[in-house]
């Protein structure tokens, strides 16, 4: 090709760098190697390790390239010839002339050195988020295409909803790479001001800046505070201004596109006026097991993994985790590995971060439990199966659907006498499913809200969280308070009836989710709405009674005292024989707790008489148990037991 005598380029407007900087040395170094260019080309010049390209925040530059566009045909030739010319610093004079708006070219993986960040953040096809990226690309593509953009009124406006850390920003960056768009980010809180006039001016300034950077995507992260006044109510002036800016004709006189995207955790947190401004609404849900495995594989691609690490198994144990949780999990595992190497003592790198992650995650998430079956070993045996533990029919119902997905999961309802350990049974269900099954324990009264429609929405959210964290066990405690007989409630608005109807609708729709199991518990089955007990809903009922034989009571007592240091004179068998015949699990726990308090008081008295020291171990002796046993009163009386027996015979099928 011919050698160009001169070359005129213009820096491309981009939100990632300042166009007014002095980048002559970078441009000269780039053309030290002969390059083939033609008019209209956009040059992608790396800036890593360049002294001329520094960050004002004294932090590593996170956008390692500069974009230049060739303005005029090299060599002064006519553009119609579409010729390519060879440019180098020895034979060509390179001129920099102003700035220009242009699409950002696609950077090939590995062709340009990055700033050390993970390749997942700059991928145009991020693992586990491909479906969301494809959906957003389909929505945005008509506004970018020159053939169809002229037929569309207004700008492309999309509201992305999803839990925090789900990867909404990663999805937007992937779409920008696919469509060759620049990305300008700002927070919704930065657009809020004390007065409506100041907020309106801030909005217009943000859109003017985005128009100057076109073609680009204006990403507003967290639009929940947008359009609210100082009192938290909707500001009509701000929402009207936002609607006016979004609905301005996009392509007039060849204007380049500007796409406006907003992110929110849920659409309920966005004021209605701002919701109506966005033409499209997409959701980035929690990843399923396959998507979690793909994300873990991508995140751990460059990390040395031990031979005992199974990412597929880890994906099963992280039900309900989002992209941010998985990043934090691997980061915690790396820190644990470094600590293990530094301290030179063996440990499992996954255990220190697994339970801690469940506690650090947002309370709205369905936390993955790590239940142990040691405690419920002592739970009372089934009333109608005197030779089998009560957990046997429960696990027999839950385990097969989790092991064989072709089976349909039914629902289970516990009928109980007081505090008999049904919560521990529910946790044991997840343990015996042979997978890290998430559990969502819901108290019935906490779903009831004073505002119209909020109670039904709370019920829908419970099942939505369960489906997103599948496999999952949803446990409704005090079910009679959530779903009593319809038509008998005293509220004038009929809130309880609507909640029961919503619960029935959700249960009827669970047949498509074979990896979600619903468990309910109540001590008043006679108050439940009869529609709940029909086949396909709570179609299996189990009666959880008290421990009526001494062997079962002994197992319960051993379970509740397993963490206590017992004296040599303590005989749990003798204590069980001396105890009342009808004690629940809560009564057994109260017995152990009162005995420990008696031991504490006895130890304090010995320390005050200088007969013992604080460093010595607390030992619970037989006298402490006898003192606690003398004040123990059973929580369930004989009369109540007879009433529960009558309810069992009435509701248990023959």
TrEMBL record:
It comes from the Eukaryota. Signal peptide: none annotated. GO terms for biological process: protein import into peroxisome matrix. Keywords: ATP-binding, Nucleotide-binding. GO terms for molecular function: ATP binding; ATP hydrolysis activity. Residues 154-548 form the AAA+ ATPase domain. InterPro entries: AAA+_ATPase, AAA_ATPase_domain, ATPase_AAA_core, ATPase_AAA_CS, P-loop_NTPase. One of its GO terms (cellular component) is cytosol. Belongs to the AAA ATPase family. This is Peroxisomal biogenesis factor 6. It comes from Petromyzon marinus. The lineage of its organism: Eukaryota, Metazoa, Chordata, Craniata, Vertebrata.
């Amino acid at each position: 090709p011919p050698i160009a005598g001169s070359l005129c380029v213009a820096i491309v407007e981009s939100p990632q760098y300042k166009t007014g900087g002095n980048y002559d040395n970078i441009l000269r170094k780039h053309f030290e190697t002969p390059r083939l260019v033609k008019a209209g080309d956009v040059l992608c010049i790396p800036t890593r390790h360049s002294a001329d390209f520094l960050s004002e925040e004294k932090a590593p530059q996170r956008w390692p390239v500069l974009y230049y566009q060739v303005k005029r045909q090299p060599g002064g030739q006519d553009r119609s010839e579409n010729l390519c010319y060879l440019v180098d610093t020895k034979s060509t004079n390179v001129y920099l002339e102003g700035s220009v708006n242009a699409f950002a070219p696609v950077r090939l993986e590995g062709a340009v050195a990055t700033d050390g960040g993970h390749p997942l953040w700059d991928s145009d096809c991020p693992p586990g988020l491909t479906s969301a990226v494809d959906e957003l690309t389909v929505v945005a593509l008509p506004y970018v295409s020159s053939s169809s953009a002229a037929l569309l009124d207004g700008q492309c406006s999309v509201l992305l909803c999803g839990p925090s850390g789900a990867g909404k920003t990663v999805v937007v960056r992937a779409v920008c790479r696919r469509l060759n768009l620049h990305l300008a980010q700002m927070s919704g809180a930065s657009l809020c001001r004390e007065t409506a006039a100041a907020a309106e001016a801030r909005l217009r300034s943000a859109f003017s800046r985005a128009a100057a950077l076109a073609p680009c995507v204006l990403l507003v992260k967290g639009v929940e505070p947008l359009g609210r006044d100082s009192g938290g109510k909707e500001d009509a002036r701000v929402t009207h201004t936002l609607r006016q800016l979004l609905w301005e004709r996009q392509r007039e006189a060849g204007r380049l596109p500007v796409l406006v995207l907003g992110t929110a955790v849920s659409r309920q947190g966005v004021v209605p006026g701002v919701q109506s401004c966005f033409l499209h609404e997409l959701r980035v849900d929690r990843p399923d097991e396959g998507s979690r495995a793909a994300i873990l594989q991508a995140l751990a691609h460059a990390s040395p993994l031990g031979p005992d690490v199974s990412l597929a198994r880890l994906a099963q144990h992280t039900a309900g985790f989002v992209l941010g949780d998985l990043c934090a999990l691997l980061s915690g595992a790396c820190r644990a590995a470094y600590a293990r190497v530094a301290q030179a003592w063996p440990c499992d790198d996954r255990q220190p971060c697994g339970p801690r992650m469940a506690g650090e995650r947002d309370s709205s998430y369905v936390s993955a439990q790590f239940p142990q079956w040691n405690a419920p070993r002592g739970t009372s045996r089934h009333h109608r199966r005197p030779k089998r533990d009560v957990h046997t029919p429960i696990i027999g119902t839950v385990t097969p659907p989790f092991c064989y997905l072709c089976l349909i999961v039914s629902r289970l309802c516990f009928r109980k006498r007081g505090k008999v350990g049904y919560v521990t049974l529910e946790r044991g269900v997840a343990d015996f499913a042979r997978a890290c099954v998430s559990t969502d324990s819901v108290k019935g009264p906490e779903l009831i809200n004073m505002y119209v429609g909020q109670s039904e929405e709370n019920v829908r959210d419970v099942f939505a969280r369960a489906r997103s964290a599948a496999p999952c066990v949803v446990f409704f405690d005090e079910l009679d308070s959530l779903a009593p007989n319809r038509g008998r409630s005293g509220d004038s608005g009929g809130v309880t009836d609507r909640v029961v109807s919503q619960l029935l609708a959700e249960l009827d729709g669970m047949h498509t989710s074979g990896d979600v199991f619903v468990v309910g518990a109540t001590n008043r089955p006679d108050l439940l709405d009869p529609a709940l007990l029909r086949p396909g809903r709570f179609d299996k009922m189990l009666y959880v009674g008290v421990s009526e034989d001494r062997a079962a009571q002994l197992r319960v007592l051993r379970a509740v005292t397993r963490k206590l240091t017992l004296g040599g004179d303590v005989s749990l068998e003798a204590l069980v024989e001396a105890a009342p015949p009808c004690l629940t699990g809560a009564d057994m726990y109260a017995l152990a707790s009162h005995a420990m308090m008696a031991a504490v008081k006895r130890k304090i008295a010995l320390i005050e008489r200088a007969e013992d020291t604080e460093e010595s171990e607390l030992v619970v002796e037989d006298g402490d148990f006898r003192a606690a046993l003398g004040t123990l009163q059973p929580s369930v009386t004989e009369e109540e037991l007879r009433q529960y027996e009558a309810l069992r015979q009435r509701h248990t099928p023959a």
